[in-house]
Write a structure and sequence with these properties.
- The protein has two domains: 50-71 and 147-214, Penicillin-binding protein 2a (Domain 2) (Alpha-Beta Complex), CATH 3.90.1310.10; 218-558, 3-Layer(aba) Sandwich (Beta-lactamase).
- The chain is elongated.
- With 567 residues, the protein is α+β, with helices and mostly antiparallel strands.
- It contains 19 helices and 21 strands.
- α3 crosses α4 (100-107), α9 runs antiparallel to α19 (539-557) and α12 runs antiparallel to α18.
- β9 (239-245) and β10 form a beta hairpin.
- The mean pLDDT is 88.
Length: 567
């Protein structure tokens, strides 16, 4: 009797335990894990896709399109529904010009329901594939970046990758603005893996990217690009760069680098060609740097524009012998003449009146050794050694632009100090951003300039640089009807072993602004390694004429007529 009772209780316990397990599983499946099982079931017949936001357009200052998005077709496959991968791969290979074995490998992947076959092909090419009516081969529209002017400002604009993400230039710098926020769409698929019309559901709506309006002027940019190309090729130079800026505001009107490339074919281009030389080329500026040295001495009241210095043809400083490249006799020059005629020995003597730390502090105030803060990725700082690392000859060599390195943009901004009455400003490329909801932001506004020298010092340097163009080394930059201000520079490049300078390789440059009384444009031209076999290669013979052409075009394009009395 007791044994029967025990058996009944045991059976009852097992029954209750089983019932509890069943109830628990029901609750687990229908309540606790209901959503996950629902999602799992949906994966059997639903596909989820990113609904890409439309990338914002990039315009120039006048509303001309520089970067736009177009609709292309992407071909993909669900390998589960491809019946004969070998045959499909062979047919697709002939149309898409892709490796047959690589396509077959994709079509036979056992662990995925989605593989790309061809991204962003033309509608015509996609139509040829669609006409084959292959099971498991599907199509979707994708946005593709297109640059209407191909090579225009290529390194500045930058480009996007196949997934519409900015990879360089402004496209990278303003990725968060331009890209927007992608949406999510789900749709049911049939037994062949095809999407069923009418079953599309938007889970998240996309938010399109903002449009960007640049400070660049398409016409000035095009002219700058073309003229730079002509000079680099004519002198068989290694490369070159030009920057055009509104000196009072910091708006970049043009930023050119050459060699350049077609933005629509960036995948064929070397990394070196993609570099924006305006902000990444670090070089010794040569005599263009004398303006900064003399400005520091003037500001401290240690020299005056009409003060004379007796200049021998050579001077020894510590272990360095510094000589004049075009003069072998003694001469007396005023400070103005030292700058106008680019006297190396004169620059050394002017620099001597400044203490080392005093000079270093001024160089920092002019923005050297620091990024300018322009809204571009990859800007270099240049090289400005700390005073504790100076040798006994460092100050002397810095006075004529050796032993210090700058970027073209740094050199240009240092000279806009003179155009701005002694104030250093920040350059910028984006004028405004217009968001889809109508909001407008202006990233370049509200940036305060920093006083570097007094208005009087800035005016004195401007007068001296005007003399350099009228009667000095920069005469080929003169433009009839406009008071042009500027300075030439010719710098030998450092030997590959870093122990000296190569007389056969140089960087030639010109930097200046106009008109002198009310500067509306400032330009720097830098040409790297022009060939002497093509003619005299000096800043005054190579870079100054290019500066003249671009400055004259810019001033006329800005509707600044020449003064008739100067014609």
């Amino acid at each position: 009797m007791e044994k029967s009772r025990a058996r009944i209780l045991a059976l009852l316990f097992l029954f209750i335990a089983g019932f509890v397990v069943v109830i628990y599983r029901l609750v687990f499946i229908q309540v606790i894990s209901a959503q996950s099982f629902k999602d799992l079931a949906q994966t059997q017949y639903l596909n989820s896709y990113s609904f890409l936001a439309e990338r914002g357009t990039i315009f120039d200052r006048d509303g001309n399109q520089l970067a736009v998005s177009t609709q292309e077709v992407t071909i993909f496959a669900n390998p589960f529904f491809v019946k004969d991968p070998g045959s499909v791969a062979e047919e697709l290979s002939a149309i898409l010009d892709k490796d047959k074995e690589e396509l077959k490998k994709k079509l036979t992947q056992p662990d995925t329901g989605f593989v790309f076959l061809a991204r962003k092909v033309s509608p015509e090419l996609a139509q040829r594939v669609q006409e084959l009516d292959m099971d498991g081969v599907l199509f979707t529209k994708e946005s593709k970046r297109f640059y209407p002017h191909a090579q225009l400002a290529a390194q500045t604009l930058g480009f996007v990758g196949v997934d519409n993400e900015g990879l360089s230039g402004l496209e990278f710098q303003y990725e968060n603005v331009l890209h927007g926020k992608d949406g999510v769409v789900v749709a049911e698929r049939d037994s062949h893996g095809g999407l069923i019309p009418g079953t599309y559901t938007t889970r998240e709506h996309p938010v399109n990217g903002g449009d960007i309006y640049l400070t660049l002027d398409k016409n000035i940019q095009f002219f700058s690009d073309q003229k730079l190309k002509e000079v680099v090729e004519a002198y068989r130079a290694k490369r070159g760069t030009v920057i055009v800026i509104r000196p009072h505001s910091g708006e970049i009107l043009a930023m050119s680098s050459y060699p350049t490339f077609d933005l629509n074919k960036f995948y064929d281009v070397s990394q070196d060609m993609m570099r924006n030389l305006a902000t990444s080329l670090v070089y010794e500026p040569g005599s263009t740097f004398k303006s900064v040295i003399i400005a520091a001495a003037l500001e401290e009241g240690l020299v005056g524009p009409r003060q004379y210095f007796h200049l021998p043809p050579t001077i020894k400083v510590a272990d360095e012998v510094i000589k004049e490249p075009h003069r072998n006799q003694e001469i007396d020059y005023t400070v103005t003449q030292i700058l106008a005629h680019s006297a190396n020995v004169g620059a050394v003597l002017v620099a001597r009146v400044l203490e080392d730390q005093q000079l270093y502090n001024y160089l920092r105030k002019f923005g050297l050794g620091e990024r300018t803060g322009i809204d571009l990725p990859g800007e270099e700082r240049g090289i400005l050694p700390e005073v504790k690392n100076w040798s006994r000859s460092t100050k002397a060599t810095i006075s004529f632009g050796q032993g210090i390195s700058v970027t073209p943009l740094q050199l240009l901004m240092a000279h806009t100090v003179f155009a701005n009455g002694g104030i250093l400003i920040r350059p910028y490329l984006v004028d405004r951003i217009v968001y889809p909801d109508g909001r407008i932001s202006r990233p370049g506004e509200g940036k305060q300039g920093v006083r570097v020298v007094s208005e009087d010092t800035a005016r004195q340097i401007t007068v001296m640089l005007r003399e350099a163009v009228k009667n000095g080394t920069g005469t080929r930059a003169e433009i009839a009807g406009y008071e042009v201000v500027g300075k030439t520079g010719t710098a030998q490049k450092v030997d590959s072993d870093g122990l000296g300078y190569d007389e056969d390789r140089s960087i030639v440059s010109f930097v200046g602004f106009a008109p002198a009384s009310n500067p509306q444009a400032a330009i720097v031209v830098v040409i790297d390694e022009p060939s002497s076999s093509a003619g005299d290669v000096w800043g005054g013979t190579v870079s100054a004429p290019l500066f003249k052409e671009i400055m004259e075009f810019t001033l006329r394009h800005l509707r600044l007529p020449p003064k008739s009395e100067d014609l």
